[in-house]
Amino acid sequence: MIRLGLCSVTFRKKSPEEVIEIARSNGLDGIEWGGDIHVPPKTAPSRVREIVDRCRAAGITIPSYGSYFNVLDHNPEDFAPIVETASLLGAGVIRIWAGWVKAGEMTPAQFEKIVSTSRQAAQMASGKKIKVAYEFHDNTPTEGGDNAIRLLQGVNHPNLYTYFQAVRPNDYQETLRNLEKVYPKLLYIHVQNNDGENSLPLVDFSDMWQEIVRRLIGRKYDGYLFFEFNVDNSPEQLAKDVDLIRGFMARQS
User: Fold this and answer.
1) For the chain, which residues make up each domain, given as ranges?
2) For the whole model, what pTM was predicted?
3) pLDDT, tens digit (0-9, with 9 covering 90-100), for 58-93
4) Parallel, antiparallel, or unpaired for β 186-191 and 160-164?
5) What whole-number distance in Å separates Cα of residue 253 and Cα of residue 237?
């Protein structure tokens, strides 16, 4: 079953309490808490519990923790506080980054570092029964379905997965090919459009997102679509985007 959620990074200038209210008022099911501002690693356990309690009171789950752990530049020991924070949140998934280097420009040493640290991170999180998934992003080793799967196969760890998003929304067919390619290792999806510099209106790519929703429902996808950045990162635009995706879901029911 498709569930709808919110990435807290969409509203970095708002407090966790405000983010929870935005999610609640839009009838969203969950929040992916960002590890940069809202719930950084090593956040006081009492504060994490407060956020968890507020989410629970609002009927909101915490499926994932959006970390900024970069396996190319960070070391495995840096991942430990991230796992602990995700565990306190009750998140079942930690999102990580494969590194800021294009897949075709990786050196053998960089590839080995990415593989080694990814494998260790996946193993560390498994001890807390938490899955790990790569951000699916341009200018990284996971740009595009082929690159993401190649890296996942290189790491070869059962606890490592990937997210998905429209890396180049103007290329409709390539976006759909990417979705099909990564689907066997797909956990969650970020709903947003970006041209590499600016967020683009979701409605301008209605055909693409309607087809994505149709394919997910056809495959009985059981996971979250997280609304991430919108054209002005406003609650008003979020509400319109949520209505758009809900409309696509209703047509398939």
Assistant:
1) 2-252
2) 0.97
3) 999 999 999 999 999 999 999 999 999 999 999 999
4) parallel
5) 25
